[in-house]
Amino acid sequence: MSDLVEELSHKARTLPPEDRVRLAEELLASVQEPDAEVDAAWAEEIKRRIAEIDSGKAKLIPADEVFAEVRRLLK
Fold first, then answer.
1. Residues 6+ apart with CB under 8 A from 53
2. Is 64 found in the same domain as 41?
3. 6 vs 31: CA distance, rounded Å
4. How many domains does the chain have?
5. Cα distance between residue 59 and residue 21, in whole Å
6. Per-residue confidence of the chain (75 residues) as pLDDT tens digits?
């Protein structure tokens, strides 16, 4: 790892978690080429999921219940 990368990495780790996530997303976006097929597939998937929610077909579970169940399963 170059000195600059090491220094930037160290400084980045001092950021609050939400800023580190934002920085990571921006860095990844700067090296990943957009893929029109993947973007179109995700757009269709999002539309399908929204339609399931709107129609009542999808069963929504509050996040606190999901996390409580995960904690229970991990014990």
1. 60
2. yes
3. 19
4. 2
5. 29
6. 689 999 999 999 999 999 999 999 999 999 988 899 999 999 999 999 999 999 999 999 999 999 999 999 999
Across 22-42, b (16+ Cβ under 10 Å) vs e yields eeeeeeeeeeeeeeeeeeeee
pLDDT at 2: 86
Burial 8-21 (b: 16+ CB within 10 A, else e): eeeeeeeeeeeeee
Q: Verify that 7 and 22 share a domain, yes or no.
A: yes
Structural domain boundaries enclosing 55:
36-75
Same domain, 22 and 53: no
Report the pLDDT value the prediction gives residue 33, as an integer from 0 to 100.
87
CA distance 73 to 71: 5
- 46 near 53, Cβ under 8 Å? no
